[in-house]
Design a protein that fits this description.
3-stranded antiparallel sheet, about 65% helix
Length: about 160
């Protein structure tokens, strides 16, 4: 079965104004649909996507990290990293520790409870990834990742 075009999906009567517009709207629609699926999974485990991302960053680092470093590694930009960490601290998935060298720096560390919460999600998250993208061959997934990285390069060029 051939996939429907975005124009058909959203019942757009006229062609898109440009290929850039069509590509961006395709990207946004796909992101929205995938994000909804991920949020539903995380919500069932008492988390949000950004909270899950924080836990994954800490587990991947294998050590505690300063708040600003965590913020810089987030997949999606979040305006209030402190509020996210507050919530994770309340439910004892992370701990805060003040730096001995610089009292202004607060380190965030993953607790054993946080590690267990991530371990419980590892299988369901991998299954969801497979359900969402497993129909694409590895070569197309690599190409998709390459193109998305290339598309984001315009943001880096604008900063520099």
């Amino acid at each position: 079965m051939k996939p429907r075009t975005l124009q058909h999906e959203i019942k757009k009567k006229h062609p898109f104004d440009s290929p850039e517009q069509e590509a961006l709207l395709n990207l946004l629609r796909t992101s929205d649909r995938f994000s909804f699926q991920l949020e539903r999974l995380f919500r069932a485990h008492g988390l949000t996507s950004p909270q899950y991302n924080i836990l994954r960053i800490l587990r991947g680092e294998g050590d505690r990290l300063p708040c600003l470093e965590i913020a810089s590694r987030m997949v999606a930009m979040v305006p209030a990293i402190t509020a996210l960490i507050d919530r994770l601290t309340e439910v004892k998935l992370v701990v805060r520790e003040r730096s001995e060298e610089d009292r202004r720096v607060i380190y965030i560390g993953l607790t054993e409870k946080g590690r267990k919460a991530l371990a419980e999600l590892d299988g369901p998250v991998a299954d969801l990834h497979h359900r969402l993208l497993g129909h694409l061959p590895s070569s197309e997934l690599r190409e998709l990742s390459r193109l998305l990285t290339k598309a984001r390069a315009s943001l880096l060029e604008a900063k520099g």
